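Ticket opened by: R.M.
Priority: normal
Category: complex prediction / small molecule

The reporter submitted a protein together with 4'-deoxy-4'-aminopyridoxal-5'-phosphate and asked that the result be attached to this ticket for the collaborator who will pick it up next week. Submitted input follows.
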Amino acid sequence: MSDYSDLLIYLDGEFVAWNDAKIHVFSPAVKYGAAVFEGIRGYWNAENATMYLFRLEEHMRRLELSQRIMRFNQIIPAETMMEATIELMRKNAFRSSVHIRPTVYVSGYGESSAQEPLGTFVTAIPRETPKKVEVGCRAQISSWQRIADNVMPARAKANANYNNSRYAGIQAAKDGYDAAILLNSRGKLSEGQGMCLFIIRNGVAVTPSVTSDILESITRDTVIHLLREQGVEVQERDVDRSEFFDASEAFFCGTGAEITPIINVDGDAIGAGAPGVVTRALQAAYFDLAFGRTNANHEWLTAV
Ligand code: PMP
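Result attached by the on-call engineer:
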């Protein structure tokens, strides 16, 4: 188990020691998963000794959307969560890249449809880029289906939604794969566990649309921008699983997954079975941007 006991956590307006960050066992957050959260990366640029939080505001705006979809009675504004996060980064004074998790949860002692009162917390822990970003991953198309919008809206980054990808992830690992890909209730590609996906087909980048029961991923939006900047056509549409058989490349994207090449699906190699040229060029652009090497003043970066 990692030891984070030296770190501070933002909890309900205060900064408390890691071991003192507690919420009540009878809260709807604990009993029913009544909470929404974000995952944000901070990239430590050692050359200019600066931490760059990537697309901080967009993440906190999505946290507002998640609260609205979850019908919280009061919406904790993005500005409050941004301020708390920046202050937490200053107090913890990290000297390596981090993963930040802001959460808004239903506190008190209510039942499953309680819409208040709300509590907030923000954690940040050191986290480097996963090895799979370099070597790629082997994915399984899951027999578990992605939650539909009229079941549990995937557009909300709600904690309880993660039981869906949990089933798929556990099955994929048991079957010897690195990751799962979920189809939606219409049988179209949706996303991976905690990440969106793209395939490259005839030189065109194709990704499931925002009505494919995906989380409206901020990295997906970043990738669309970067690919277009590189002159790659991008299509957002329904994507069939059989399109993998004609794909020269594929990759997952997300805050945690960053840009992870998919080199094999269900035992069949994608393209040459190794990370492809479009994926590699995209990774280079993504990391140059996120670490503040392309433009340290980019509007997507918050320097701390
Ligand atoms: N889908 C799900 C279910 C996720 O949890 C994530 C990670 N937040 C993503 C997609 C990717 O979203 P983002 O690029 O905003 O991190």
